[in-house]
Design brief:
The protein has 329 residues and is α/β, with parallel strands linked by helices. It has 16 helices and 10 strands. It has helices at residues 9-23, 26-38, 40-47, 53-59, 67-79, 103-106, 117-123, 126-129, 135-138, 146-151, 155-161, 163-188, 207-215, 227-230, 268-281, 304-320; strands at 51-52, 83-89, 95-101, 197-201, 220-225, 240-244, 256-260, 290-294, 297-298, 326-327. The longest helix has 26 residues, at 163-188. The radius of gyration is 24 Å and the shape is globular. The chain binds S-adenosylmethionine (SAM) and the ligand COc1cc(-c2oc3cc(O)cc(O)c3c(=O)c2O)cc(OC)c1OC.
């Protein structure tokens, strides 16, 4: 019987190309980080029309000595669909390459309300990325997460002790929330209709609660989060009320509880504890009580690209918390 481990040279060559591709894929994150750092999207947005390499470089204050390197950098970013290129003829009829924004780089324009720059800055921070170095060894460790193995404390303890990480975390979550808030209110707004009060448990700096309060002014919205997250916000806002506390201990009473991107931070036992506190906070179902959960559902039937993103989010949760992205059943 032929050895199952025998592969043709062609298969091995393809395998090597595949492994090199996987190995060097960290350049995707690092190119994204560098594009944000340089502010390429801001310059293209401000210019308002396709921009030539030399103009882009001079506006970004990049030395002409780096022309070839920057052209190669832009070639990769364009290949990644972060920017697009267009060939146009100049007055002497020579073809010149121009760069322009794509929907993805539109999200990297710092002045845009939907920009996701704070989330990118959070995820590429050495404090977060450092934990990825110990994923392999964590499988043999008793620590709750690779993050805890790397930093000797959990993520939420660390955010409470380090104001700069707390700020990055809150701004990162808020930046990713804006588009999701609009989508939820547009497609599932009926869920909130008829409520008199709602508490956003682990609601961070209140992006979602404020959007709900604006769309449904009759709902009294409260945000419960850890004291270091909400203490500075308490006086700032008249639209929502901020309460500092611990969702494992108690949840303020309301008609409904919202859990957006909370349960995926915790393992099944911890989720049951949180859900018990939430159940105590609301009336019974017949009296209108409800728990609204917004989390990613891992679904192998949707397109490959989306599944890959879901799997990466699942690994992010595994690396930083005790949680996971869950499937429907
Ligand atoms: C992933 S963030 C989600 C924030 C917000 N719900 C959103 O969708 O942007 C998780 C939030 O849970 C909060 N959190 C963690 N442990 C908590 C606890 N024991 N009680 C209340 N909030 C907690 C964190 O401070 C953080 O704001
Ligand atoms: C910003 O958009 C999303 C963020 C999350 C998300 O990201 C995190 C990143 C961390 O470094 C630590 C965390 O604990 C978390 C989260 O708990 C968390 O929810 C999730 C999203 O969708 C599920 C986001 O939108 C795509």
């Amino acid at each position: 019987m032929a050895d199952q481990m025998e592969f043709t040279t062609r298969e091995l060559l393809e395998a090597q190309a595949h492994v090199w591709n996987l190995l060097l894929s960290y350049f995707k994150s690092m190119c994204l980080k560098s594009a944000v750092e340089l502010g390429i999207a801001d310059v293209l947005k401000k210019h308002g029309k396709p921009m030539e390499l030399s103009d882009l470089m001079s506006t970004l204050s990049i030395s002409p000595l780096r022309t070839d390197s920057f052209r190669r950098f832009m070639r990769t970013l364009t290949h990644m669909d972060l920017f697009a290129e267009k060939k146009l003829n100049d007055p002497d009829d020579h073809q010149v390459k121009y760069y322009l924004l794509t929907p993805s780089s539109h999200l990297l324009v710092s002045g845009e309300t939907m920009n996701v720059i704070p989330f990118i800055n959070l995820e590429v921070d050495p404090m977060m990325m450092g934990a990825s170095q110990v994923i392999g060894s964590w499988f043999k460790s008793p620590k709750a997460s690779p993050f805890e193995l790397f930093h000797s404390k959990g993520l939420w303890e660390m955010t409470s002790e380090r104001p700069e990480l707390n700020k990055m975390m809150n701004e990162g979550m808020a930046s990713g929330s804006r588009l999701v808030c609009d989508t939820v209110l547009m497609t599932c707004g009926h869920v909130f209709r008829g409520l008199k009060s709602l508490v956003d448990v682990g609601g961070g700096t209140g992006t979602m609660a404020r959007a709900i309060a604006r769309a449904f002014p009759e709902i009294k919205c409260t945000v419960l989060d850890l004291p270091h997250v909400v203490d500075s916000l308490k006086e700032e806002d008249s639209v929502v009320e901020y309460v500092g506390g611990d969702m494992f201990v108690s949840v303020p009473h309301a008609n409904a509880v919202l859990l957006k991107w909370i349960l995926h931070d915790w393992n099944d036992e911890e989720c049951v504890k949180i859900l018990r506190r939430c159940k105590e906070a609301i009336p019974i179902k017949d009296a209108g009580g409800k728990i609204i959960i917004i989390d990613m559902v891992v679904d192998a039937t949707i397109d490959k690209h989306a599944v890959e993103t879901q799997l990466y989010f699942d690994l992010l949760m595994m690396m930083l918390t005790t949680g996971k992205e869950r499937e429907e059943i």
